[in-house]
């Protein structure tokens, strides 16, 4: 399937540290997106990176895309307790989006 | 903008009953998606509408599931009859164009079928 797979499944860090999550996918894409989900809430869009882009920044977030390796990474710098959430990558598949199983990030105060 | 609005937030029903979930997308968004989230299967796309027309319903699990979008500001997902394995959180999302644009999610409806 087209589904992306995030790695690791769970990550626990101390406040102030950086958190890195990875996403691998199987077939060619036009774009890849990262979303955050807080417990009991809907997903919130973080960043969209197109296939011809290699890196994008948004505040403390940095996303890279390596189409040759079919992988992407999300880096959260100087993490805060409020960053505790699940993070998902989504790849386009036709006109739809397919989500990976997510990485559960816990930022400890 | 109020964002994507889903109702109800929680629904508890008995097996065999009909369940209707509702969604109001963001005004001006042309694409609407219904997803289901469970611990076992993650986020699954059920159906996708573009300009109120169902484009891809291949994710709808069974004939017990149906979805409609009678106009640009309203969509329903119906399960009839409901079964315990339908218990999940159902999300509605909308986007301006669907393709190459972010999805805006509602807060979901948590469905429990006993």
The succession of helices and strands of chain B, N to C, reads: EEEEEEEEEEE
Number of helices of chain B: 0
The greatest inter-chain interface is formed by:
A-B, 24 and 24 residues
- Ranges of chain A where pLDDT stays below 50 over 5 or more residues in a row are none
Share of residues in helices of chain A: under 10%
Helix and strand composition category of chain A: mainly beta
Q: What portion of residues of chain A belong to β-strands?
A: over 45%
Q: Main beta sheet of chain B, described?
A: 7 strands, mixed
How many distinct beta strands of chain B?
Answer: 11
Range of helix content of chain B: under 10%
Structural class of chain B: mainly beta
Can you write the helix and strand succession of chain A as a string?
EEEEEEEEEEE
Q: How is the biggest beta sheet of chain A arranged?
A: 6 strands, mixed
Distance between the termini of chain B: 36 Å
Low-confidence stretches of chain B: none
Regarding quaternary structure, what we see is heterodimer
Instruction: Give the tally of β-strands of chain A.
Output: 11
Termini distance of chain A? Answer: 38 Å
Helices and strands in order:
The complex is a heterodimer of chains A (109) and B (114).
Chain A: E1 5-7, E2 10-14, E3 19-24, E4 31-37, E5 43-50, E6 55-58, E7 61-66, E8 71-76, E9 85-93, E10 96-99, E11 103-108
Parallel strand pairs in A: 2-11
Antiparallel strand pairs in A: 1-3, 3-8, 4-5, 4-9, 6-7, 7-8, 9-10, 9-11
Chain B: E1 5-7, E2 10-13, E3 19-24, E4 31-38, E5 42-50, E6 53-56, E7 65-71, E8 74-79, E9 88-95, E10 104-105, E11 109-113
Parallel strand pairs in B: 2-11
Antiparallel strand pairs in B: 1-3, 3-8, 4-5, 4-9, 5-6, 7-8, 9-10, 9-11
Tag the structure with descriptive keywords.
heterodimer; A: 109 residues; six-stranded mixed β-sheet; 0% helix; B: 114 residues; mainly beta; seven-stranded mixed β-sheet; four-stranded antiparallel β-sheet; 11 strands; 54% strand
């Amino acid at each position: 399937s087209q589904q992306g797979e995030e790695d690791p499944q769970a990550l626990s860090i101390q406040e102030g540290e950086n958190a890195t999550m990875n996403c691998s996918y199987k077939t060619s894409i036009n774009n890849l997106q990262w979303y955050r989900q807080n417990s009991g809430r809907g997903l919130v869009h973080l960043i969209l990176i197109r296939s011809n882009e290699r890196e994008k920044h948004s505040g403390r977030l940095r996303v890279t895309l390596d189409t040759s390796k079919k992988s992407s990474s999300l880096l959260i710098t100087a993490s805060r307790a409020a960053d505790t959430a699940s993070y998902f990558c989504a790849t386009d598949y036709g006109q739809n989006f397919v989500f990976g199983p997510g990485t559960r990030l816990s930022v400890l105060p | 903008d109020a964002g994507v609005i889903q109702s109800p937030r929680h629904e508890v029903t008995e097996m065999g009953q009909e369940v209707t979930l509702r969604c109001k997308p963001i005004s001006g968004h042309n694409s609407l998606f219904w997803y289901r989230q469970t611990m076992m299967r993650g986020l699954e796309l059920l159906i996708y509408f573009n300009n109120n027309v169902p484009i891809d319903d291949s994710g709808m699990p069974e004939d017990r599931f149906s979805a409609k979008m009678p106009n640009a500001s309203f969509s329903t997902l119906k399960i009839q009859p409901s079964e315990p394995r339908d218990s999940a959180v159902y999300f509605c999302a909308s986007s301006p164009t669907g393709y190459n644009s972010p999805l805006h999610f509602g807060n979901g409806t948590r469905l429990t079928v006993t």
